[in-house]
Specification:
- By secondary structure, this protein is an all-beta fold.
- The chain has a single domain, classed as CD59, CATH 2.10.60.
- A five-stranded antiparallel beta sheet has the order 4-7-6-9-8, with no helix packed on it.
- The termini are far apart.
- Its main location: membrane.
- It is found in: Cell membrane.
- It comes from Equus asinus.
- This is CD177 molecule.
Length: 130
């Protein structure tokens, strides 16, 4: 039986109800520390994950800049969370520590969680002192 076809029983009859097609999303977790001078950071994701029916694809990126170093935490995969456009949030800005995050959830097509480089997140970090 197709995973997109569910059966509902009503008065003893099986009625077909169309389901939502499962998405395939990029899948990875990266945690790294880099020199700020080596930014922006670029990654290549080869792993994929098939989501549960109705789930979306997500990108989550966190950059923590402390003087000359940047901690990067990246997570890509499936999520039950609601869709939302890409958004960048400044959690803390300078003078010695800056924290910025990027989140995006989509269901419009397979592999839609395709951010592969730190800008615009990196571009939104203010300069910090050493």
């Amino acid at each position: 039986m197709s995973p997109a076809l569910l059966l509902a029983l009503q008065d003893g009859f099986a009625l077909p109800i169309s389901g939502v097609q499962a998405l395939t999303c990029q899948f990875t977790t990266v945690e790294d520390v880099n020199n700020a001078a080596d930014m922006p950071y670029l990654w290549d994701v080869k792993d994929q994950q098939v989501c549960e029916d109705g789930w979306g694809c997500q990108d989550t990126l966190l950059l923590i800049k402390n003087g000359p170093q940047v901690k990067l935490v990246l997570n890509k995969g499936c999520t039950p969370e609601a869709d939302h456009k890409a958004r960048v949030t400044q959690h803390r800005t300078g003078p010695s520590l800056s924290i910025v995050s990027y989140t995006h959830v989509c269901r419009n097509e397979d592999l839609c969680n395709n951010v592969s480089i730190t800008p615009p997140v990196w571009d939104s970090l203010p300069p910090t002192g050493a």
